[in-house]
Design goal:
Number of strands of chain A: 11
Largest sheet of chain B: 7 strands, mixed
Shape of chain A: globular
Number of strands of chain B: 11
Structural class of chain A: mainly beta
Oligomer: heterodimer
Strand content of chain A: over 45%
Largest interface: A-B, 24 and 27 residues
Order of helices and strands of chain B: EEEEEEEEEEE
Chain lengths: 109, 113
């Protein structure tokens, strides 16, 4: 089963609003990854975090690697309709990635 | 092609039928991963190849699932005697090295009726 817990499960926001979502784990991770998946597509990597406390931006997206190494946050500023999708956090497990269940984002124009 | 290609995109199988799902990774990518994604869930790891060697198959749910990558390029995921609970999207990803550089295909949506 999944080791990563994401919240909220879904969000409905107005275009232009900021969004914040998070991911927690029962175990320590050395890497946090954030992916976005659109309908009918595979996940696409948005941001990778490699160091506790690290804050990394990719355009309007900002992600942080929690100090405890058991959590991570993703923020989206000034949301636009194309931000719609499911956002997954992922962390390493042996040779592969383990994913959370995702946060489904809906943006109303 | 420029990205990871999976075929077929959609597959409907009758319960008990065998299916084969194909993944064409990005050329030159050493690592290849298979994931299963149930509706409303995140991808769950199935198996991992480094070149032709299957280094981890701990995520395969039963002995009905079998994956191969005989020449270290194209991979096939085979499911024998399909059951309804096998219905899911099967995602393939490839990377030149570790998992953090992995690129996903569009997936194959398998529906078992």
């Amino acid at each position: 089963g999944q080791q990563l817990n994401q919240s909220p499960q879904s969000m409905f926001i107005q275009e232009g609003e900021d969004v914040s979502m998070n991911c927690t784990s029962s175990s320590i991770f050395n890497t946090w990854l954030w992916y976005k998946q659109e309908p009918g597509e595979g996940p696409v990597l948005l941001i990778a975090l490699y160091k506790a406390g690290e804050l990394t931006s990719n355009g309007r997206l900002t992600a942080q690697f929690g100090i405890t190494r058991k959590d991570s946050f993703l923020n989206i500023s000034a949301s636009i309709p194309s931000d719609v999708g499911i956002y997954f956090c992922a962390g390493p497990h042996n040779n592969d990635m383990r994913f959370g269940a995702g946060t489904r984002l809906t943006v109303k124009p | 092609g420029a990205g990871v290609s999976q075929s077929p995109r959609y597959k409907v199988a009758k319960r008990g039928q065998d299916v084969a799902l194909r993944c064409d990774p990005i050329s030159g990518h050493v690592s290849l991963f298979w994931y299963q994604q149930a509706l409303g869930q995140g991808p769950e790891f199935l198996t991992y190849f480094q070149n032709e060697a299957q280094l981890d198959k701990s995520g395969l749910p039963s002995d009905r699932f079998f994956a191969e990558r005989p020449e270290g390029s194209v991979s096939t995921l085979k499911i024998q005697r399909t059951q309804q609970e096998d219905s899911a999207v099967y995602l393939c990803a490839s990377s030149p090295g570790g998992y953090t550089e992995a690129f996903f295909g569009q997936g194959t949506r398998l529906t078992v009726v």
